[in-house]
């Protein structure tokens, strides 16, 4: 039997697998759906957490505009990921919490969804998201310093940022409190 086709013509839903589209029927309460933001998903192994999160990202893609070069460069410098000498990065990272609030009058609107998983699952989640939704841009803030630097510098374009509880709680990176 052929799969039913969706009548939706939006660019993000056209990349969504048909079976995923069928799972994401319009909410009975659009206001409640629009107000929903963030959450925890703590099902047991094998229950489909990656597919659920991927489906939610596809169904609720951010409409945030790309952050301009100037503010983004300042963000990278203040968070310690803008490059330069190790001493300059450490100084910027230690000053990030104090300086960040004074420079920006409103929060930077990143379009990515931050997903926090156990360090043994970061690569598996990245692979699964790419399998379910190859059109999504996935970055990993985990592992080598270079991998983390690439993740931070690609933050404006990424749809999903995978990280670990350790990276979120690591105050010396300077980004946890400014990003979250």
Automatic annotation (TrEMBL):
<dbReference type="GO" id="GO:0006281">
    <property type="term" value="P:DNA repair"/>
</dbReference>
<keyword id="KW-0378">Hydrolase</keyword>
<dbReference type="InterPro" id="IPR038718">
    <property type="entry name" value="SNF2-like_sf"/>
</dbReference>
<dbReference type="InterPro" id="IPR000330">
    <property type="entry name" value="SNF2_N"/>
</dbReference>
<keyword id="KW-0547">Nucleotide-binding</keyword>
<dbReference type="GO" id="GO:0005524">
    <property type="term" value="F:ATP binding"/>
</dbReference>
<dbReference type="GO" id="GO:0005634">
    <property type="term" value="C:nucleus"/>
</dbReference>
<dbReference type="GO" id="GO:0016787">
    <property type="term" value="F:hydrolase activity"/>
</dbReference>
<keyword id="KW-0067">ATP-binding</keyword>
<dbReference type="GO" id="GO:0008094">
    <property type="term" value="F:ATP-dependent activity, acting on DNA"/>
</dbReference>
<dbReference type="InterPro" id="IPR027417">
    <property type="entry name" value="P-loop_NTPase"/>
</dbReference>
<protein>
    <recommendedName>
        <fullName>SNF2 N-terminal domain-containing protein</fullName>
    </recommendedName>
</protein>
<dbReference type="InterPro" id="IPR050628">
    <property type="entry name" value="SNF2_RAD54_helicase_TF"/>
</dbReference>
<keyword id="KW-0347">Helicase</keyword>
<dbReference type="GO" id="GO:0004386">
    <property type="term" value="F:helicase activity"/>
</dbReference>
<dbReference type="Pfam" id="PF00176">
    <property type="entry name" value="SNF2-rel_dom"/>
</dbReference>
<feature type="domain" description="SNF2 N-terminal">
    <location>
        <begin position="36"/>
        <end position="169"/>
    </location>
</feature>
């Amino acid at each position: 039997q052929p799969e039913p086709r969706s009548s939706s013509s939006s660019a993000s839903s056209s990349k969504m697998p048909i079976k995923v589209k069928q799972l994401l029927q319009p909410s009975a309460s659009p206001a409640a759906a629009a107000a929903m933001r963030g959450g925890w998903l703590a099902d047991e192994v094998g229950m489909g957490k990656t597919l659920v999160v991927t489906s939610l990202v596809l169904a609720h893609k951010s409409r945030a505009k790309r952050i301009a070069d100037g503010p983004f460069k300042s963000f990278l410098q203040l968070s310690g990921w803008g490059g330069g000498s190790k001493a300059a990065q450490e100084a910027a990272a230690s000053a990030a919490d104090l300086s960040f609030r004074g420079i920006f009058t409103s929060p930077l609107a990143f379009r990515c969804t931050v997903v926090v998983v156990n360090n043994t699952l970061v690569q598996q989640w990245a692979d699964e998201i790419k399998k379910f939704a190859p059109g999504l841009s996935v970055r990993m803030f985990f592992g080598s310093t270079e991998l983390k630097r690439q993740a931070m510098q690609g933050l404006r374009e990424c749809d999903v940022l995978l990280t670990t509880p350790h990276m979120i709680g690591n105050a010396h990176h300077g980004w946890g409190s400014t990003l979250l």
